Amino acid sequence: MNIYLGADYKGLERKNSLLSFLVEHGYQTIDKGAFEYHEGDDFNDPAIAVALEVRKDPEAFGILICDSAHGVTIQANRFKGIRAAHCETPESAILAREHDNANVLCLSAHSMNDQTIQEIASTFINTNFVELERRVRRIKRLDEREDYD
After folding, report:
1. Band of the pLDDT at 147, cuts 50, 70, 90?
2. Which of 12, 15, 65, 145 is most solvent-facing, going by the fewest CB within 10 Å?
C-alpha cells in the first residue's frame, strides 16, 4: 500500500518527521511536497497532488498537513473519490476509517506534536472500513454531482 504525503510550509517539519516515522515502520511512502520551506506557499498544491495520486490508486492513503488542517481537507474533498477527514484524535481516525472509509487523513501542524501525529496516522492506516450497507450507500452518495447554481 502506498501512502502519499503532502504539506504546506506550516506543515513541512511535521510531514518530514511523519515521513521518517512511516519509513522506519516499513510503509511505502511517496512525498508530494512541499520539499522546502517557502513562507506563504499555498496548501492547495500538495493537497491536489496527494488527492490525484490517491484517486488513481484505490488501495492508497493520503496524509496532508497544514496549519489548521482545514484548507487541505476542503481542497482534497473537491475530487471525486476522495474522502478526506480532519482527525484530531486516534478515536476520530478510527471513526473516519470504520464509518466513512476515509482515504486521506488531514492533520493540524499547529495543534499537534509529532508523537500525536504519528499515533493518529498509525491508527488511520491500520483501521479497516466496516462495510455495512448503509455506509456503502452513504459513501456512494458523496460522489453525486449536481450544480446548485
Report:
1. low
2. 145
